[in-house]
Amino acid sequence: MQGSEEDERLLVQRSPSTPALECSSEDGLLHLKKSSTPVWAWGLLVAAVFAVSSAAVTFTMVSEVPPITLAAWRLQLTSVFLGVGAAFQFRGMPSADRWRTLQQARLLAASGACLCVHFGLWVYSVQTTSLAHSLLFVSATPLFLAGGAWLLRRPISRGELAGTAVGLAGAVLLATAAARSDAQVTVRGDLAALTASLCFVGYLLVGQRLRSWMPAFVYAFIVTALAALMLTLGALLFERASLGAAGLHGAFGWAASAHYLPYVTYLAAGPGIVGHTGFNTLLRYMDPLLISLACNSEPLIGSVLGWALGLLAPPGLWTYIGGSLVLASTFLVSLAAAQRQQQQRQQQQRQQQQQQQQQQQQQQQQQQQHQQQPERHQHLQQQQPREQQQQQQEQ
Q1: Is the dihedral of CA 255, 257, 260, 262 positive or negative?
Q2: DSSP code per residue over 2-17
Q3: What is the pLDDT of residues 29-75, one digit of tens each?
Q4: Is residue 342 exposed (0-12), middle (13-18) or buried (19+ Cβ within 10 Å)?
């Protein structure tokens, strides 16, 4: 992705109650550029994580639906819900931002493609490999984010790397604890989960860049609608879904099915609106690494929900240990990122002070030069009559 020099460093001013936001270039992995995180954002993060954690349990209840079709169903209705909020937000956008939204068509399409592949492959992975392997590989998003930042030499502290390692260890414990003895492990299912995790990285990074100025519902609607369209086409091509059929084999089968409609409605409203749209909102205030680490608690929350609904066995000791590690990693990364951010602000302040001092010195030098010019002129004026007198005396 290539951007203009303007996109490399963009300062967006919001309302007085919201701190200034600094957005990096397109390869700006792991820049925590917000001066502070609002208190309400943490509450939204908790609600979003709980919402997306319930998706796996819901998918289990309708596991007979082909994976691409099921993923398409979820995003189809989510797009309908998002369209209402997007219409109001788009009307309130300045004309310059509307035109700018159209100019970002490539990035929006890339984000939609990442979301499409992520959902399609993740649902496919859950249905074709063990739950332990699926959760383990799909939780590799923080590893990709931290590794990408290190390779690109972007700012990332040791504390963030340590927190990422703790979070991954917790994810491994959670995935292992959730394993089922009768589940069959397949290489294609593991690769599907790993690819889904990588695609989620692209989805987060594009969202971080565009959400610095684009309203949440406008961005989420465009991306989700594009992903829903791609998944629907995939269901028609690869799973032989029918446009007019109702139920299991219909590309829009949920709409005419009394059995599937409640499940899809919840997937769209809960994990879709509260979950993913909540994450899109938080990308303006939080780093993608922090959000992805918080998502690693999904196996713990999903296991508890599954146990409460009678679908899974009670969570064991390792589940609680892994969940505690994930929560600890979220705290560590948040604290380390805040410290790094403060150091960056202090360094920027020092640089600004140095620049101001240099400017003052230049101004003083210019003033001295201006003062010296009249003195030289007077000296020349005084010297000319003397030279004339000397010439007259010589004559």
Answers
A1: positive
A2: ---HHHHSEEE---TT
A3: 434 344 467 889 999 999 999 998 888 788 888 889 999 999 999 99
A4: exposed
What are the beta bridge partners of residue 11?
22
CA atoms within 13 A on the CB side of 72: 27
Q: Residue 197: pLDDT band by 50, 70, 90 thresholds?
A: confident
Report the candidate in 178, 180, 182, 179 with the shortest Cα–Cα distance to residue 315: 178
List of residues 6+ apart from 253 with CB closer than 8 A: 69, 73, 241, 245, 246, 247, 260
Average pLDDT of span 322-330: 75
What are the CA-CA distances from residue 162 to residues 143, 169, 190, 367 (Å)?
11, 11, 26, 54
Closest CA to 207 of 123, 145, 156: 145
What's the rounded Cα separation, in Å, for the pair 300 and 315? Answer: 8
Mean pLDDT throughout 353-358?
86
Q: How far apart are CA 296 and CA 208, in angstroms?
A: 19
Residue 186: count of CB within 10 angstroms of its CB = 14
Kindly report the backbone phi and psi dihedral angles of residue 314, in degrees, each rounded to the nearest multiple of 5, phi listed first: -60, 140
For the ranges 48-57, 135-144, 171-180, which has the lowest average pLDDT? Answer: 171-180
